[in-house]
Write a structure and sequence with these properties.
Elements: H1 11-55, H2 60-67, H3 70-85, H4 89-96, H5 101-123, H6 125-135, H7 145-148, H8 151-168, H9 177-213, E1 214-215, E2 228-237, E3 244-251, E4 254-260, E5 272-279, E6 283-290, E7 298-304, E8 310-317, E9 334-338, E10 343-350
Parallel strand pairs: 1-5, 8-10
Antiparallel strand pairs: 2-3, 2-8, 3-4, 4-5, 6-7, 7-8, 9-10
Helix pairs in contact: 1-3, 1-8, 2-5, 3-4, 4-9, 5-6, 5-9, 8-9
């Protein structure tokens, strides 16, 4: 029989007390950060959106492209805050989840928003002067508009962390446990979708950048739905003669080899001519000599099954960075590239 002495709490009581302290701390942080978040949303809505509408400095299409669903997100925060201030965490957050689609829309528009801002700052003198004037207001504390535009996406990540912690530290017998659990699940799912949207946008930027660097018939159509993984220099070792530096671009389905153009080229200096495109499903990487732990590097041979290509890659400088190819459907799984040294490195090479 367990004996309880006056003033001494059992381990179960201690655990419950810890949960309650964590819940109170998380709830306080959620409330304080929501107040600050709503204040910043209001600054943009008042001093940028509201005045731009009144003055007509930006046409409605450009204004919509720049701010997206900002006003609706501001309204959702205004609806949520009174519930948090009243301690109705479950009811408030469950109602807030009806507005989560606004964050998906905002994420999908974020790349367009940044592009519109840069274009208008460059071309629209009146808008550029207006932005500088508003940013100089003491209410903004030195923040610029480009710093404030990603605010809803940053806040969504905070929502996920705080609401999940709040749900985890709420006992199953609490009246708002089920509401908090549902809200945490829905917010986490939305945050994951927003992350996926951001990853796709970054990949599209990489593909456009690589496409701009390349020329040649084999480089056409490079942006057709593939994912960029890594780029870097390797030394290609021919059967006769000296090794030649080549830039390699690795995608999920192909490995592209490009030759640098002469630095004194009048029109295309700093770009690359696409020399070969190797499907990863048809490639095999074999070690010729050297080992992954050696300081002197090694030599790898890349073979193609269908087109009969074969060449060697010189790995001559050790490096701590690893190029992971775990998603590639071939025997080539991981090796490293050193963009700064214009050649590949050997540390972490596997065959």
């Amino acid at each position: 029989m367990e004996i309880h002495y006056p003033g001494v709490r059992s381990p179960v009581q201690e655990q419950r007390a810890r949960w309650e302290r964590k819940r109170a701390c998380t709830a306080r942080e959620l409330l304080e950060t929501e107040r600050r978040y709503q204040e910043q949303l209001g600054l943009v809505a008042t001093y940028f959106l509201g005045i731009l509408k009144a003055k007509g400095t930006l046409r409605p299409p450009e204004r919509q492209a720049l701010f997206g669903s900002w006003e609706l997100i501001y309204g959702a925060s205004q609806e949520l805050l009174p519930y948090l201030e009243g301690g109705c965490w479950g009811q408030g957050l469950e109602g807030f989840c009806r507005h989560l689609e606004l964050y998906n829309q905002f994420a999908a528009n974020s790349e367009r928003s940044q592009t519109t801002l840069q274009e208008q700052l460059k071309k629209n003198k009146g808008f550029r002067r207006f932005v500088r004037l508003q940013e100089s207001r003491p209410e903004f504390g030195g923040l610029q508009l480009q710093d404030l535009l990603p605010l809803p996406l940053q806040r969504l990540q905070q929502y996920e962390n705080l609401v999940v912690a709040l749900a985890e530290n709420t006992g199953p017998n609490s009246p708002d446990h089920q509401q908090l659990t549902r809200a945490a699940r829905l917010i986490s799912e939305t945050a994951q979708r927003v992350h996926t949207i951001g990853q796709k946008q970054k990949n599209d930027q990489h593909l456009r950048r690589v496409q701009a660097l390349l020329s040649g018939r084999q480089a056409k159509g490079l942006t057709s739905g593939r994912w960029f993984l890594r780029q870097g220099w390797l030394l290609v070792v021919p059967p006769h003669g000296e090794p030649r530096p080549r830039m390699f671009f690795l995608f999920t389905d192909v490995l592209l080899m490009a030759k640098p153009r002469p630095p004194l080229h009048l029109l295309q200096s700093g770009t690359f001519a696409c020399k070969a495109l190797y499907p990863m499903a048809q490639c095999q990487l074999s070690r010729v000599f050297g080992h992954s732990g050696g300081p002197c590097g090694g030599l790898l041979s890349l073979h193609g099954n269908s087109k009969g290509f074969s060449f060697s890659l010189d790995l001559s400088e050790p490096c701590a960075k690893r190029w992971s190819l775990s998603s590639c459907p071939s025997l080539m799984r991981s090796y490293c590239l050193c963009p700064q040294t214009r050649r590949s490195c050997h540390a972490g090479t596997t065959v």
